[in-house]
Structure formats: structure tokens, C-alpha cells
Input
Amino acid sequence: MKAQIRTETITLKTYPFSDPAPVPEFGRLYPYNRFDGYSSEGTDTAWEMIVMENDFIKLWINPAVGGKIWGAIEKTTGREFIYFNHVVKFRDVAMRGPWTSGGLETNIGIIGHSPSCSAAVDHAIRENSDGSVSCFVGATDWPSRTRWLVEIYLHPAAALFETRTSWFNNGPFEQAYYNWSNVGIKTAGDLQYIFPGHAHLGHDGAAYAWPLDDRGRDLSHYNNNDFGHYKSYHVTGAYNNFWGCYWHADRFGMAHFADYDDKPGKKIWIWGLSRYGMLWEDLLTDADGQYTEVQSGRMFNQSISSSSKTPFKHRSFQPYTYDNWNEGWFPVTGMDGLTYACPELSFFYNGETQTLQVTANKPLQGRLKLEDGIHILQEPLHLQPLQVMLVTLPAEFNELTVKLSCNGKLLYDAGEQESVLQRPLAITQDFDPASVQGLYFQGREWERQRFFNWAVEKYEACLAADPCFIPALTALAGLHTRSMLYEPARDLLLQALSIDTYDGGANYLYGLVCQKLSKPADAKEAYSMTALSPAQRGAAYTELARMLIGESQYEKAIAYLEKALVVNNGNKQALQLLVVACRKSYQTGRALHITELLLAADPLDHLARYETNRLSGSAGVDKFDLHITGELPHETYIELASF
Output
């Protein structure tokens, strides 16, 4: 059995956007520009889609609109488990303006709908040797020069697909860190959100009860949210790796699965059931009906500027760091509801009939084991994907302590999932925002949102209160270095190093500054001391190797790059430098082997393709620019040239 992948042209009525700003958005969105023209009239437009399908599900990917999964259906019923918008109706919602509803979009950057969400991205397709198929979509977030890639992977014989996301900070500075995957689903059909947790957070970090609010309303049912304006529920408070949705009127649903350390955040977005929100139905679609968004995130909530006063701070992305995570997405059908789902199976516990309905997501053979601490049930399994089996439980069986296993693998532990976590949801009352630490946190939060001018003000206020506070000295020096104010940065770093000569962050930035001030011995010495600190070690080795390549010391550079890859074997900058160092030292075979590994993991690695062409004389190799299909291709060439 094999999955299929192909390119199809699909005609959709399209309401285009226009009126680009003549100059880029200076500040945190540079070099992107905004668009301020939106059409009220649609025209039929041909869109090139990547279509992936097996016997159970079918999905469409639109590389020209952010690489989003445009929609997905379960084939036996024809029902959408990811909303397919039959018009392309761009509206001013995203950071740069244009955005379309529905589908599954990847947002990486600082906040909200990312700059590439309505732009063309690089893409490639592949048939895999195991009968599966992959579609790769990716882009560079140009304000940060970080590169993201999503492999959309369809199994040959399973009613699910995976998104395998990787993200690499390709530069020498910390960058903002933000990721949420947004999925549009329809609201009709008595929709219920099955989101395990005991609280929900607002964007401001304030915590409220979940799923029952202070008036006793069960907010997990869409129709119970017919009050107030839009809703934004970041559900938390339980250790789990699942969330899902179920349309009870349709006996159909969808589910998401990811390891908790990959995606702890889960969010529900509702426009609002009053006219305030429902007017967006006509603004964003023609005849597909209202939608809602369910989202998975790398953080607990989508913080705003007040984050310095809550436990839920913004995160940063360390230099030359590679990050990756996997998620599974699948339909649920043939049951009376949904209790839990994972890649192997989904199930619903019916307390009225004391039964368990189980549907397979993959072919399942063997034994299903249920135990509650007293009773043990074992049932034979012979299920194909989407087949349902019914298990009758003893009347006294306790669903609150049940554990479910398949062939010895524990899939579900009710006691663990229902446990109320003790993680604080509010900042301690002893914390003073005006303290040295408080001012530093405010500066750090502004920096992590790319509001650099405001960050400088807070760091300077912090140092006015304590001129020897090393975190603020280092942070302010980092911002000065970004602004090419190298001598003021050096003075701050020397102050920090006079207090702690081994501080990793200060040593690393001091190395960068000394390079810019043409002091190679000081730079190499600083990077060497940086290597004592695990957090900055990989970046220090990478920068040392870059200096050594510039001095034609290839063997020594290779040794440092190998050290950098021990720290983080996904350090693509180190791998790319290693290719160059091997080529320059006539280790052609090793260089080609590395480029093959890079392209196997990421067919959109343009530098690896360039080096492969160069090393092999272009014999039988793809054209170098084959997959440079995204917006602002000149930026891609400039980035490659600067490397």
C-alpha cells in the first residue's frame, strides 16, 4: 500500500490583496512591507496545490499561501476534519495585513500570524521508500534570519498525517521565539472542545477556571460561548499530550497528538457568537460557514507586553540552535464522542452504558488491556484504520483510574491526565516590577518581542539602579552590538567580565565585538572561555571555526566544527561550514556525504544544493535554484552570498 502525492491546479474564487507599502516596515518586521488594499469582488483564480492522499484521508497544501494545509478530509464520510475554505478571501488580520481563514498554518516569529502566512514559500515533494509521501514547505523569517521547515508526512496505511517542524537560528544573536500551529475547523454540528486542563490563560497571563466558568457555563461547548466578544482560551493545568474536537451532531471529530515537551500549549479561538464576531463569517468566506481555531504552541500562552508581570514570559532562541518537534493530526469517526486519542487509536468512554468505543488510527493487531487498579480486562485487537470496536466494562469499573495499553505499550493513564498540576499561574506578590530584577525582566521581554528601543530604556534604567548587574550589562551590550555600536558594547562587556571573568554570555558577545574591532586574538580567547559555559558552547565553537576558515586553517576549523556538532548535531551553520572546510581541504567525499545528509533531511537547503553542484560538477544534480520559490527570493540569494 502506498500513499500518493501530486500537483493539481484548483480554481477558487479569490479576493486578492494589493497596495503594497512602497518601503519596508522599519523595525521588527524589516525587510517586509505591509499591504493595505483588499477586494470586495472575487474572481476565479487557478491555484497550484500539492495533493496528498491514502485510502483514508486526503489533504491539500497551498505553497503560494504560506505553505498552509488548505484542508483535509476523511474519505469514507467525505467530512472535513480541517476546514477547507472554498474561496481565498484575504483580509487585514495578520502582521503584514493579508490573511485567509481555514486550513492549518504554521506561525513562527514573534507573535500572531507570521509575515509569510499569505506569501509564497519554498516547497518540494518526495515519495519515500516506505510507501509514505512528504511535502516540504519552508521559509526564512527575514527579521531574525531564522529558517523554518515543515515536513508534512502522510503514512501509507494510517488515518493520520504528521507535521515535522524544524527551526534553526542561523545567526550569532539571540532571537525572538514564537510558534503556534493554527487549525481552522467548522463550528456547526454541536461542537465540543476536548481540551484536558483545569484553567485557561488570557493573553495577559491572567488565569481562569476551565471548563466551567464562574457562572457554571461549560465553555468546552461552542454554543455555550454566546456572550461577550471574542474568546481566547489557552487551556492548561494538566500533563497530557492530546486535545481534540467533536461534532456530536455529525458523530465526527478531529484530534491532535504531540509529546508534552514538544507542544505544551493548547488554545481555542472563537470570534464570538454575537454580531461582533459573526460578521467575520461573511468577511472570510462565502458559503462554508463560521469557523473556529484550535491551536498548539511551544509556550503556554501567546503573551503580550504585560508578560513581565506574569509567570508567562517570552522565550528567546539561542544562536545557532536547532529546534524540532512533531505533531500528529487525524479524524475521529464512528463513536458517540471523544475522550482521548493518540496515533494508535481514539476512544470514547460512555458512563451511561459502561462501554468503551475504540477506533483504530493505524492497523492494530494484538491485545488491548484495561485496568483500574482492581479489574483487568484484555480484549483481542484485529482492527484496520477507522474500524470501531465496542468493549463492555464491569459495572464497578473506575474510569477515573483506568490505564489503557496496547501490546504492552501504555497509551492512556486517566489518573495522570486528570491530576491537577501545581505549577503557579500567577506571579508572587513579593515580586517588585520596579526592582533591578523587575526592570531587567521588562527589558528582556521588550527585546524578545523585537522592541529594541524600549528594551534599551529598561536595561539602562536597571543599570542606573545597579551598575554591576551582569545580565543587564550583557543584554544592553548585545543590543549595542546589533546596532554596530561596538565600542560602547565592549565597555559594558569589560565591566561584566571584571565582575565574573567566566560569564558565558559576556564572553561570547565580547568575542563577537572583538571580531568586529579587528582583534582576532581577543576574539579567539573570548570564545575559548565561552566554551566553558554549556549554553553558549556550540555558538562559540561555530564562531571560532568561522574565523579559522577565514585564515585557511581548515583542519583546525574542522575540529571545532565537530565539537560544535557534539553540542548540537542539528547546528546547520556548523554543518554548512564543515562542507566548505572539507571542500577547501580537498576532502571532497566527506563534503558530498554531508550535503547528501543535509538534503535528505531538508530538500530546501539551498546552500547544500549549491555545494553539491559545485562538488560534483552539476552531473545529475538538481538545478541549484530549483526550490527557491518563496517570496523575496533576492533575500535568499543575499543570505547565501553573505555566507
Summary: The chain has 14 helices and 35 strands. The radius of gyration is 26 Å. The first strand starts at residue 4 and ends at 15. The chain has a mean pLDDT of 95.
